[in-house]
Specification:
- By secondary structure, the protein is an alpha+beta fold.
- It has one domain: Ubiquitin-like (UB roll) (Roll), CATH 3.10.20.
- The protein has four helices and seven strands; from the N terminus they run H-E-E-H-E-E-H-E-E-E-H.
- The chain has a five-stranded mixed β-sheet.
- A hairpin with a 2-residue loop joins strand 1 and strand 2.
- It starts with a helix and ends in a 32-residue tail after the last helix.
- The structure holds FE2/S2 (inorganic) cluster.
- FE2/S2 (inorganic) cluster (FES) binds next to loops.
Length: 149
């Protein structure tokens, strides 16, 4: 059992099976309901581009082909992104088994182009957003009651 799995088990977090399709093959890993997909991937030995870890820079963009997710951890998420199936791995948690597609060199560009086409290219942080969004692995758990005990 990995450290992540042990942590998820101890906390009782629901685990989901994630299938990731990439140009070089198909990967599978488990993702906990209280952990962002990026970190579950890293723990499973699957690398992904990332920079901001806040759902801002879109370096970690992927496409959701099947399943439900919680995108609320992202600094920027637009209805057009959701409609087109884009997810930001650093700030998205699974809510069911998932099928994702990511081309590490192309998906970010596709999402950027999509946002340009929909006039959704954010050039500045949303007002007041800095204090609400936290960076990194622990961000998903920062406001859970267990963290304050
Ligand atoms: S690392 Fe910046 S949006 Fe995910």
């Amino acid at each position: 059992m990995t450290e992540r799995q042990a942590r998820a088990h101890a906390g009782g977090a629901t685990q989901f099976r994630i299938r990731l399709e990439r140009p070089d093959g198909i990967y599978s890993f488990d993702g906990a309901a209280d952990e962002y997909l990026l970190y579950a991937m890293i723990d499973a030995g699957i690398g992904s581009p990332y920079i901001c870890e806040q759902g801002w820079c879109i370096a970690c963009a992927a496409r959701l082909l099947a399943g439900d997710v919680d995108r609320s951890g992202a600094l920027t998420v637009y209805p057009e992104d959701v409609e087109a199936g884009f997810v930001l791995l650093c700030s998205t948690m699974p809510r069911s088994d998932l099928v994702l597609r990511q081309d590490e060199r192309q998906t970010r560009r596709d999402m950027m182009q999509h946002r340009i086409e929909h006039n959704r290219l954010a050039r500045a942080y949303p007002p007041g957003a800095r204090s609400r969004f936290r960076r990194g692995r622990a961000a998903a758990r920062i406001d859970t009651p267990d963290d304050h005990s």
